[in-house]
């Protein structure tokens, strides 16, 4: 039986930049002011097993294998031994950490994709070596052997390489895509679709991922930040959106974000933007539709009558924006686990539309590139079966020497294409500004 040992406090960023983690590394990084929802961060190293899925090709521990990828994921999670529980043990001290791409959700929903994605469909690793950081009480716990450290670890890497990101759609092309979605809404095809685009840049040979992630987390601190490294692919995420949380006892919660407004530069302006967002008919309709979609998605695996909506369209302040946030809760029915919950709900409803499958078909028609990691989900599943996960937004993915950033927004019948374009740029700006001159 394993156990978490309390060790001297260090912050997650300092631990990351001193760790020699090899090809595989995972940091689940809560940023901003710590509260109960952003209390814990986890740094995982020396994986026990790894899983890489590209389309129908599955490689476990570097070897081609047959079978269902989700079955492999479940088996990997089950093979990590339980730890010795204590009153102050961290919520996660071993299990599986992974990334399910947007295309993994398309596979789950049996929706074809006409674009080739540079990102793996699914990557995951099981870990029993974890450093857990309690940011609220400034305490550290370590499970497994101590990590190797980089020489000269005291040197703080600085990101000094400006990058030039180019959009994959011109402004007129994106506006036409939005108008096409509005036309289809008018014809009764769908109620809503999330239309996005990508910006791409070439990474220089000396590109320092750790320094780049440090710049991202400093410029956009977020409650669901993540840095995942695997052979040939990495994700740097500053996500503000929880996707699904699942307690060991089977309690499910999802918190979709839909509706956006600027943060404001002073108290009066901030209050005015928040009040305007709270009363915005289009933004509230958008959030309401996604809330209903997520009720349906988790209802696939939850006990009948257990799904509730304790929070609907509440304005919450984030570092760079205001958002409308809802909460949907439910209880898993017997015989269902975190893997089943993921398969039933991917890709996240807040980045697809309603009805979900038809919205995804339309998205595939109007967008010009695969979403990849963007609009997918980062997840952790502990040895006790509990799970937490985020929607991959406000992120940078690296495949080979190509970096990609995504942004978009929900389109409804009330959408104004010009305003939607400006809102999309508002979301992309904090990420782009980190890396551009």
UniProtKB/TrEMBL annotation:
Residues 9-141 form the Anthranilate synthase component I N-terminal domain. InterPro entries: ADC_synthase, Anth_synth_I-like, Anth_synth_I_N, Chorismate_C. It comes from the Bacteria. Residues 171-427 form the Chorismate-utilising enzyme C-terminal domain. Pfam families: Anth_synt_I_N (PF04715), Chorismate_bind (PF00425). GO terms for biological process: L-tryptophan biosynthetic process. One of its GO terms (molecular function) is 4-amino-4-deoxychorismate synthase activity. This is Para-aminobenzoate synthase.
């Amino acid at each position: 039986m394993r156990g978490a040992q309390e060790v001297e406090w260090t912050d997650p960023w300092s631990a990351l930049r001193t760790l020699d983690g090899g090809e595989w590394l995972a940091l689940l990084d809560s940023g901003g002011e710590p509260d109960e929802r952003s209390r814990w961060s986890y740094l995982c190293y020396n994986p026990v097993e790894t899983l890489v899925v590209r389309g129908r090709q599955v490689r476990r521990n570097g070897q081609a294998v047959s079978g269902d990828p989700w079955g492999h994921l479940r088996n990997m999670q089950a093979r990590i031994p339980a730890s010795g529980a204590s009153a102050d043990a961290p919520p996660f001290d071993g299990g599986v950490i992974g990334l399910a791409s947007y295309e993994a959700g398309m596979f789950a929903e049996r929706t074809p994709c006409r674009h080739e994605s540079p990102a793996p469909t699914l990557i995951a690793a099981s870990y029993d070596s974890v450093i857990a950081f309690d940011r609220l009480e400034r305490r550290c716990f370590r499970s497994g052997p101590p990590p190797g450290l980089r020489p000269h670890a005291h040197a703080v890497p600085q990101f000094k390489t400006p990058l030039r990101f180019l959009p994959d759609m011109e402004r007129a092309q994106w506006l036409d895509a939005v108008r096409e979605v509005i036309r289809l809404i008018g014809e009764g095809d769908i109620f809503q679709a999330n239309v996005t685009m990508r910006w791409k840049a070439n990474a220089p040979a000396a590109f320092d991922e750790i320094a780049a992630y440090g710049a991202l987390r400093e410029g956009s601190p977020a409650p669901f930040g993540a840095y995942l490294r695997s052979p040939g692919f990495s994700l740097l995420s500053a996500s503000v959106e929880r996707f699904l949380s699942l307690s060991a006892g089977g309690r499910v919660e999802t918190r979709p974000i839909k509706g956006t407004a600027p943060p404001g530069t002073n108290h009066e302006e901030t209050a005015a933007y928040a009040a305007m967002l709270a009363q915005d008919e289009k933004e509230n309709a958008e959030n309401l539709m996604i809330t209903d979609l997520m009720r349906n998605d988790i209802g696939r695996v939850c006990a009948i009558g257990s799904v509730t909506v304790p929070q609907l369209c509440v304005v919450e302040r984030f570092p760079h924006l205001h958002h409308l946030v809802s909460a949907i809760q439910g209880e898993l029915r017997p015989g269902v686990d975190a893997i089943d919950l993921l398969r039933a709900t991917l890709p996240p409803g807040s980045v697809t539309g309603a009805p979900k499958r038809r919205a995804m078909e339309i998205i595939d028609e109007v967008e010009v590139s695969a979403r990849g990691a963007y609009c997918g989900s980062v997840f952790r599943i502990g040895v006790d079966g509990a799970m937490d996960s985020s929607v991959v937004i406000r992120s940078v993915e690296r495949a080979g020497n190509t970096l990609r950033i995504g942004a978009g927004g929900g389109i409804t019948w009330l959408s104004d294409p010009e305003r939607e374009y400006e809102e999309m740029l508002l979301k992309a700006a904090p990420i782009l500004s980190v890396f551009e001159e």
